[in-house]
Every structure is written in C-alpha cells, then in structure tokens.
Amino acid sequence: MKKLIFVFVLLCMFSCNEYIDKPNNIIDKTKMSEIIADLAINDQVIFSYPNTNLESGTRFILKSHNVKTEDFVASYKYYIVKQKMTGIVDDAQKIIIEKDPKSEKKIKGTPQVQPEELPKLERLEKREKN
To answer: For the DUF4296 domain, which residue ranges apply (predicted)?
Structure first.
C-alpha cells in the first residue's frame, strides 16, 4: 500500500510541471515591451487629460501593433507567471527613455519627496510624547 501511495505522489509531482500553458499566439518579448511602453505613455496622457478615454487609447495601441486583446492578455499572464515580466518592463523603460529623454529621472526612481520630509503619523508623535 505504501508503494502505491509513493507511486501516486510521484505521478502527481511529474504531471504538474507547468502552472500555465504557453499560449498559441504568444507575443514575443520585444513586441510586448513596445506595447507596454505605449500603454504607459497612454496612461500618462490619461493622467494629464482626465476627460479622455483610456479604453479607446488601449484599443488603438493594440490595433497599431496588430495584436488581439485576447493574445495580449494571455501573453501578459504567461510572462507574469513565468516571472519574465521584469525584463520586459526594463526594455519598455528603455523605449520610453529613447522617446522622451526627460522621463529618465522619473523612471530611474528619484523620489519626489525625500524621506525626512515625509510627515510623521499622529500615533507615533503621541507615543513619543508619552
């Protein structure tokens, strides 16, 4: 009986090697990073002009890259699960910097507010007084 359980456990371990299957129409990493860069720029446009439509901008970006929505979503999920998204995002950041060199300071992560300038929480101030 123990051998049967051991064989069953081994069978389960080897049959579950992939969490997610590779999509049929997967978008390659370079094209994915171009799309991510365009979507980030679109997001900033929406932030600057709040009355514009995010959905139509997203549809336009995917159409200009000849990518279906389902393929983009499936590829995005695949790259997230496989932990390959950081490389894609890094490439997208490089594309954005090439398009707009002034954005490098924002992308590189220079904080707008220095840590010593952050306001203290009231609870901490009350504790310090006591």
So the answer is: 23-96
